[in-house]
Design a protein that fits this description.
The chain is α+β, with helices and mostly antiparallel strands and about 160 residues long. The chain has two helices and nine strands, in the order ααβββββββββ.
Length: about 160
């Protein structure tokens, strides 16, 4: 009879261990999936554009993109205008990405709006193209990083 009880005890212990292992594997899988999704979010254009950008041709001009969809236009650290912004990825019929555009709409005067093609957007540089008359013009920005002191510096 003692041998039979030992077998039951061992079986109960194995079942309990299996439940713990399965729960642990599921938990680790969910955490891994969540982290993978978060890392994907960091590389989207919407996330990459957030921050402060210094106009290359005029270091006193800054655009600051916020997560809430607002873009602040500063000249010599004085707020000039506020815009809502959207990033639109237009795809060709075969499903490949063909063009990414940035649209700025003035929050006070919606008729004051701009559409730019995003030629490059990464963690340090933003290249925009727009049509002026019959010619295409390019503007470039460099990301401004905030240091521990809270002072903004050019990257």
């Amino acid at each position: 009879m003692g041998n039979q009880q030992n077998k039951k005890y061992v079986m109960k212990t194995l079942k309990r261990t299996n439940k713990i292992l399965v729960t642990l594997i599921l938990f680790l899988s969910v955490i891994g999936y969540t982290q993978a999704q978060e890392s994907k979010k960091g590389t989207t254009k919407e996330n990459l554009i957030n921050g402060t950008w210094i106009f290359s041709d005029s270091p006193n001009t800054k655009w600051q993109f916020k997560v809430d969809g607002l873009c602040y236009d500063y000249l010599e650290d004085i707020l000039i205008d506020t815009y809502t912004y959207t990033i639109i990825e237009e795809k060709s019929q075969d499903g490949k990405k063909s063009q990414t555009t940035l649209k700025l709409v003035n929050t006070i005067n919606p008729e004051d709006n701009y559409v730019y093609s995003i030629d490059k957007l990464d963690s340090g540089e933003l290249y925009l193209e727009y049509t002026f008359g019959f010619r295409n013009k390019f503007i470039t920005f460099n990301r401004q990083e905030e240091e521990e002191t809270g002072v903004l510096t050019s990257k």
